[in-house]
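re: ur question from earlier - yeah i can do the single chain one, its not a big deal. heres the input i used so u can compare w yours
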Amino acid sequence: MVRNLLETLPAGRFKHPPGTTEEHAGCLFMLGRMTMRGEGGLEVDKPAGVALWQRAVAKLPDRNSMHAAFHLGMCYLRGDGVDVDYAAARNLFQQAAA
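and the output i got, formated as tokens:
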């Protein structure tokens, strides 16, 4: 479902700068949030949302990556879409705070 949504968007919408293959952390974060919550016509798919936030976190220190790190840390803390992992949660919270 997420892949279909990405394919329907205009070229360059999830890229920065336009014409490159680099993904935009803010778009990954927002799409992950929409996927986690089932917003915008998407079905709730927590593992897919986690995967999108992981891709956004890889873009640190981008401001939106910090948001993704916090939300991903909460997923690991609560076991929301992933197994509970307190060490991973702590690491992500530290990355978000840096």
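Residues 63-78 form the longest helix (16 residues). not sure if urs matches, ping me
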